Amino acid sequence: MRNLFRSNQREAIAIAVLSVLLALYLATHPSGPNTYVMTIWANQCLILALAAIAQFFAVIVRGIDLSVGAVMALTNCVASYLVIGSGLEMGLGIVAVLAVGIACGLVNGALVVFGRLQPIVATLATASLFVGLALLLRPTPGGQIDYDLADAFTLDVLGIPTALIIAAAVVGLFWVPLRRTGLGLGLYAVGSSEQAAFQSGMPVPVIRLASFAMGGLFAGLAGLYFSFVTTTGDAGIGPNFTLNSIAAVVLGGVALRGGVGTLTGAMAGAFILKTIGSLMFFSGLPPLAQPFIEGLILAGAIAIGGAGVLRVKNRLEVFAQ
Amino acid sequence: MSKVTQALPGVDALLPYGGAVLLVLGGSYFFPQILGLDYLAQQLQIAAFLGLLALGATLVILLGHIDLSVPWVLGGAAIVSTSLVGSGDPALAGMAIPAALLFGAVVGVINGAGVAILRIPSMVWTLAVNSMLLGVAVLNTGGFNPKGEASGTMIWLATGTVAGFPVAFVVWMAVTGVMALLLTRSGFGRYLSAIGYNEKATLLSGVSTPSVIFAAFAIAGLCSALGGVMLAGYANQAYQSMGDPFLLPTIAAVVIGGTSILGGRGSLIGTIGGVLFITLLTSILSVMQISDAWRNIIFGLIIIVMLLLQTLRRKDP
Q1: CATH for A105
Q2: Which of A4, B83, B113, B250 is the least crowded, having the fewest Cβ atoms under 10 Å away?
Q3: Extents of the domains making up chain B
C-alpha cells in the first residue's frame, strides 16, 4: 500500500486536492449537493479533462500540442453538421467526427516525425490551419446536435452524472489496459529518453505518430462532448482550451519535459482547474476579482509544485533531464 | 553560439527575407499598389510593433525558454501609460512611458524568478503570470475599455515620420542595434546561447545562470511594454485583450527567422526577416479581402512550408 502511494504520489496529491475542492464546492453551492449540480459540474470538468488527455499524449512523449483547442473547434463544427438525423446517421456522424480528430493528430505527428519540426511550432501552425477549416464550416456559430443523444451523454444514470461514468470508463477501459501494452510502455520510454528508446530497438517514429493520433482522438472526443453540452457548433472555442489543457496537465503532475505523469493525473488536474473556477462563481467574491484570484491560485499551485527545488542540496540535480 | 556572433547571417536567417520579397512580388501581380512607397512604409510602421515583441522573444527563446506573458504585459503597459496620461496631471503624464517600461521590466523579473529560482517550466509560469495580469487588469478597469488617452509623444512614436521613415520603424531598428551589440559584444550574449545549449555546463563554468535568465526575461518584458506603449499611441487608447493577437505571430516570426525553439541557436537578423514576412503575409492576405477562414488556412500552410524548408534543408536533425 505504501509503495503504491509512493509510486503514485503526484496523482494521490492531485486527487486529495480535488476531493477537498469538490467538498467545498458542494458545501457552498446555493442549492446544495444534488444530482443536478453534480451533473453540470461533471459535464464542464469532462470537456476540459478530455482536452487535458489530448495534451497529455503530446506532453508524455516530450512534446506540446498548441492545436488541442483548434482540433476541438473543428470537430465541434463537424459534429454540428453530422450528429443529427436517424440513429445510423448519427452513429456514422460520430465516427466521422472522431476520424477528423485522429486525422488532425496524424497531421501534427507527421510534421513532427517526418518534417522534423518541433512540436510546439508545428502545432502552432496547424492550429491556424484547423481553426481556418472550422471557420470554413461555421463562419458564425450555428448548427444543431440531436437533443436526445446529447441528453443521453450529459444527464445522469441512476443519479450518477454520465460524465463521471465516461471519465471512469476512459481510465478503466482505455488507460489501464493501454498502460500494459508495448505502446503504453513505449510512450514513457520515448518521453524519458528518445535515444535510449531508439537504441533498445523501439519503433520511435511509430510510437510518436500513435501518440499524436491518440491526442487527436481525445481532442476530437473533447470537441464531440463539447457539442453534446452546447448542442451547437462554434469555431471560436479553441484558445481557452489549449492553454487550460496545458495548465491542467501540469497541475495533474505531468512533467513538461516528458516521460513523467499519468492520464489519470491529467484528468484530475483538469477537474481541479474547473472546480476552482466553479468555486469562484459561488464564492461571493466580487466578480471582478475572480479572474485575478483564479490566476493567483493557478500560479500558487504551480509554484508549490516547483518549490521542491528549493530543498535540493546539490544544485546540479535541478538540471536533471 | 557561432551563429549569433558570426558577421554573415546564415541561410536560415535569409530565408524569410526571400519569402518577403516573393510575397511583395506575388502580391503586386494582383495589386500593383503593393509596390508603392506608401504601402511599404506603412508595412514597416506596422511591422515595428510585432518587431519589438519579437526582439524580446528572441532573447528568451535563445535561452531555451518561452514567454507567454507577452499579451498582458503589452496590454498592461498600454493601460498604465494611457491612464497616467489621462489623469490630466502633467507630472504623471510625463511619467507615463517610463512607468510603463518599468512595469514591463518588473513583470519580466517575476517571470525570471519562477523560471530561474523555482525552476518552473517557463511555458507554464509565464502563462500563469499572464492570467494574473489579466486578472489585475479586469479588477482595475471593471472589464470595460480603460479610460485614458495616449500622449503626444506616444502618438509620435507610433505614427510620426523622421526623414521619410516611420518613427516606429526607427525605434525598432534602434532597439535592434542596441540588442545586437549586447548579444555580440558582451558576455551576456554568449551566456544566453550557452544556457540555451547546455545550462548545466554553463553553470559549471562559473556563470551565474540565474542572473542571465533574470536579465533576459526583464529585457523581454521591456520590449513587450515598449510595444504596448507604441500600440496604445497608434490606437490612441488601450483596450482589453489588445495583446492577444500578437502572441502566436511573435513566436512564429522568431522561429521562421531561424531561431531554434530549443534555444542556443538563432539571430536577430533572422527575427527581423521573420517579422517582415509575417507582417507582409498578414497584410497581403487582408488586402485580398478573402474570408477569415481562408486567411487562417493560408497563414497556417505558409508557416508550415517555411518551417519545413528550414528543417529539411539540414541533413542532420
Answers
A1: 1.10.3470
A2: A4
A3: 2-313
Residues 231-250 of B with CB under 8 A from A: 244, 248
B60-70 residue pLDDT tens: 999 988 898 99
* Cα–Cα–Cα angle for B220, B225, B230, rounded to 5 degrees: 130
State the amino acid at position A139 in one-letter form. Answer: P
Residue (of B243, B303, B82) closest to A131 by Cα position: B303
SS (H, E, C) A119-183: HHHHHHHHHHHHHHHHHHHCCCCECCCCHHHHHHHHCEECCEEHHHHHHHHHHHHHHHHHHHCHH
A-contacting residues of B 246-275, CB under 8 Å?
248, 251-252, 255, 260-262
Instruction: Tell whether the model's pLDDT for residue B317 goes beyond 70.
Output: no
User: What mean pLDDT is predicted for residues A57-71?
Assistant: 90
pTM for this structure? 0.84
Cross-chain residue pair B262–A296, CB shorter than 8 Å: no
Given this structure, which CATH class describes domain B2-313? Answer: mainly alpha
Closest-CA distance, A152 to chain B, in angstroms, reads 33
Decide: B242 and A108 in contact? Cβ < 8 Å.
Answer: no
A312: helix, coil or strand? coil
Window 175-214 of B: residues touching A by CB (8 A cutoff) are 199-200, 203-204
A99 within a domain of the structure (yes/no): yes
- Domain of residue A289 covers 35-305
- Give me the pLDDT at residue A1, please: 56
Candidates B70, B118, B198: best to mutate against A (most CBs of A within 10 A) is B118
Distance between A282 CA and the closest CA of chain B, angstroms: 18
**What pLDDT, on a 0 to 100 scale, did the predictor assign at position A310?**
59
Number of helical H runs and strand E runs in chain B = 15, 2
- Does the beta-carbon distance from B303 to A118 stay under 8 Å? no
Interface confidence, given as ipTM, is: 0.83
Alpha helices in chain A (DSSP H): 2-7, 9-28, 35-60, 68-82, 87-113, 119-137, 147-154, 162-169, 176-180, 182-192, 194-199, 204-230, 238-251, 263-282, 290-306
- State how many domains chain A has: 1
Closest CA to B266 of B5, B21, B47: B5
Strand partners, A233: A142
Q: Does some domain include residue A142?
A: yes
Instruction: Classify residue A177: in a domain, yes or no.
Output: yes
Q: What is the pLDDT of residues B101-159, one digit of tens each?
A: 999 999 999 999 888 888 888 888 888 888 888 888 888 777 677 777 788 888 888 88
What are the tens digits of pLDDT across the range A111-162?
999 988 888 889 988 998 999 999 999 888 888 888 888 888 888 888 788 8
Q: Is A26 on the interface with B (CB under 8 A)?
A: no
Residue A285, SS3 per DSSP: coil
Residues A223 and A138: their CA atoms lie apart, in Å, by: 14
CB contact under 8 A, B300 and A132: yes
- Tell me the count of A-B CB pairs closer than 8 A: 155
CB environment A224-253: b (16+ within 10 A), e (fewer)? bbbbbbbbbbbbebbbebbbbbbbbbbbbb
Q: A8 lies in a domain?
A: no
